[in-house]
Specification:
Elements lengths: L1 H5 L11 H13 L1 H4 L7 E3 L9 E12 L5 E11 L3 E3 L1 H12 L2 E2 L1 H16 L3 E10 H4 L9 E8 H4 L1 H11 L8
Parallel strand pairs: 2-5
Antiparallel strand pairs: 1-4, 2-3, 3-6, 6-7
The structure holds zinc ion (ZN).
């Protein structure tokens, strides 16, 4: 319907299978998070002599689409937490970002969805998520500028303790967008 409305030649061989290709890409890849059941992550108890400190994973790729224009926004996330009684495997932090990225949404809500899920699953002392992304709806239309949007969500000690927040922000600021 979109191609028809644009008036392109649907008999042209480049367009002939486009509706099917686009539908498959949206359902199976771009929005695969919608069709997937919400998962639980495997967690491990912390050892008795472990003094909980900040666990940070940086440079997690974010590939999503905005709900206002259905255009991509891409960037990176930093996810951190301070364990209370449970730890999780580091790849799970990446998995959480991927799961919540693959659906149409706004970046602000993606950021808080990741932080809320981490808190639900691990009940940590605190958690923090920062997402930095460029939005094609801004770069290719409207003002036609690139620009990096930063959103954050802080929970528990990341919100209430200035030293924890400062440590997290210092780490997150080393984020590079070179790989975009
Ligand atoms: Zn948009």
């Amino acid at each position: 319907m979109l191609l028809e409305a644009l008036g392109v030649d649907l008999e042209n061989h480049h367009f002939r299978k486009t509706p099917e290709r686009v539908a498959n890409a949206w359902i199976e890849e771009l929005c695969s998070g919608l069709g997937e059941k919400k998962f639980s992550i495997t967690t491990f108890p912390v050892s008795v002599d472990y003094e909980p400190s900040m666990v940070v994973l940086q440079h997690i790729p974010v590939r999503s689409v905005c709900s206002h224009h259905l255009l991509p926004f891409v960037g990176e996330a930093t996810v951190a937490y301070i364990p209370d009684e449970r730890l999780c495997g580091v790849s799970k932090l990446s998995r959480i970002v991927d799961y919540f990225s693959r659906r149409p949404q706004v970046q602000e809500e993606l950021t808080s969805d990741i932080a809320n899920f981490l808190c639900e699953q691990l009940s940590p002392q605190g958690a923090g998520v920062i997402v930095k992304a460029t939005h094609m709806c801004m770069a290719m239309r409207g003002v036609s500028h690139d620009g990096v949007m930063t959103t954050s969500s802080l929970k528990g000690s990341f919100l209430s303790e200035a030293t924890v927040r400062a440590e997290f922000m210092a780490l997150a600021n080393t984020l590079s967008l070179n790989k975009l």
